[in-house]
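Q: Two folds, back to back.
A: First:
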Amino acid sequence: MFPHHREREQPIFSARAHVFQIDPATKRNWIPASKHAVTVSFFYDANRNVYRIISVGGTKAIINCSITPSMTFTKTSQKFGQWADSRANTVYGLGFATEQQLHQFSDKFKEVKDAARLAREKSQDKELANTALNIAAPQYSQDLSDELQSPPVMCVNGPEDKLFRSQSADITLSSEKERIKKMLSEGSICEMNLEAELFTLQDSNTKLVAALHEANANVEQWKKQLAAYQEETDRLREQVAELEAHGGQGPSDLLKDELTQSLEELEALLKAKDEEIHILQNKKVEYHEMEHDRDEAIHRLRETEMRNAEMERRIQNTEQTLSNSLEDRDRMDSEIQRAIEILDIKIFDLNDLRQSLVKLIDK
């Protein structure tokens, strides 16, 4: 995140802490901004003379706070501290692992706040000096020729035109970067949906595998029972055949009816077991279909990962182009500053010339 700032900013202190933000609704409860401890760093921008606290979790900026002299870091417990950011309209809280880390962060915060106060005072002094110089500079004499006034104007207008073109390119690159990031975000959402679908399929697959193993074990047991029932059925049939062959010499008709009824019950049980085996075979077919669906989901997930990698590569290229454009803009800013300095010198020389002319006229 923030690659164009990181090139100009330098880290001056870092610490690991759990980050919290105040609940905007209640203004009392803390909401965790990170699931685990993250790096919280102080950065210094030498070009703008600005200090910031930055913390990044994954691809999202958790803290992006510019330090002002009015900020105060308060220790609320042995391992917890907080400060308010009026620009972001929130309060940040940091939970450290040790009391020593909290003291180190608090001392660094106070040191950076003092440095920010000094930087602001210097900036205000410089602005006052420039204002005084502008007030002291008189209006140019109408008698001075246009040739003396034209060169400074030309020195300023050129860099300003370059600056406008640089800002336009910067806006275009930023828009392209935001568009690609949006595409990457949509790809990440699609990837998350595919992962959720894959996890659901894996869970169903696990349950189905367990049921299939249990069914296979039951099938083996039922096969043994079927074999025993078939043997029993064959034995009973043989007894019935013997009874029919011997006629009245065998058991009574009542025993014959009982054997026939037992034979029918065994045949019905055999039929039920055959149906259960058929149902289990159908489940096995469903299991293979779910395995096919899982393979397709894995394939789609891999394709999504490849698209995300391509988008990340495009974002890196865009960020590099944006970084180069910012460097060009910084160089143009330097040229403008030099042109302004030259203009100040010309104004000062003209002022001296005007005073000299006034003295000559007075004489």
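A: Second:
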Amino acid sequence: MVAIARFLNVTLIVPELDKASFWADPSEFQDIFDIDHFIASLRDEVRILKELPPRLKTRVGLGMFYSLPPVSWSNISYYLHQILPLVQKHKVVHLNKTDARLANNGLPLEIQKLRCRVNFNALRFTSQIEELGRRVVRILREKGPFLVLHLRYEMDMLAFSGCTHGCNDKEAEELTRMRYAYPWWKEKIIDSKVKRREGLCPLTPEETALILSALGIDRNVQIYIAAGQIYGEERRMATLAAAFPNLVRKETLLEPSDLRFFQNHTSQMAALDYLVSLESDIFVPTYDGNMAKVVEGHRRFLGFKKTIQLDRRLLVNLVDEYKNGSLSWDEFSSTVKEAHAYRVGSPSRRVVIPDRPKEEDYFYSNPHECLQLLDEPL
């Protein structure tokens, strides 16, 4: 949105955050990000205001504005020819969806670099979140190296994706009910087995335990779980805890008093996990959601820090073959290692798939226009 406002030469109002989602988080932008730094650091690029000027606020109060979701993955000419005339006509345009609304590729280089500047410099968490993040990292570092496991196995993720592998009938029914209860989740009838086979499901904690072991991760390493509440936690985490006894979370490393301001503010809790994820020796996401992709790109920006990009489609089939006895442990482990030898966040160009932006590499997971590739002069 900053890049679009800059290109159109229009004023940007600090974004309002969605409060109607599953998490029902009341946080405002300034509860998560340092708003003054955000505005000041971009002042030579775009005019950003905390709120609408009084005259325009009155217009909006009277319903005199235009609201729309921009078309996903649009190029800059769409905003120039479709959105800018609306701003000129209505004075205020409310873009009510802002995720993945700009193409990954084919944009002017200065736009791509501005997207990086916003993401890696202008968007800084509040001092309270930053300070707590540093404390968690310090506690972990005192005990040696650590791996962050972004374990996307919360209730909303499973209900939304329709992935019920490893769940009992009662749990599968509960997840289906939840999916039908949320009207903005469009896909209702989902075949969990097919989806899992195609690699479109988050890996289960049990699958993750096998895969980390197969990759040769030291069983005594500290593993920080970056996640909300794991669905069916005690039962579902037992295998992972047995394989890797040093599992920790922010809730186990900090005192309850440290987190009291963050309770029921899942975005602020996620911000804390984000900071710890950036600093880890290895980052392993079990699903490629928005946070996992942006952490991956940020770690590339910080010097291509190791991020293991799991090939879920291959892995679930290998896990099934190992479990049914078709593969020995040694065969399973060597195949997993071989498949991921080059999937570690090393310098590379984004994969571009014309006309299929959802399937190509996401800009923020590998913003190569902003990165110092190893074979390029500084």
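Q: And?
A: The first helix runs from residue 2 to 8.
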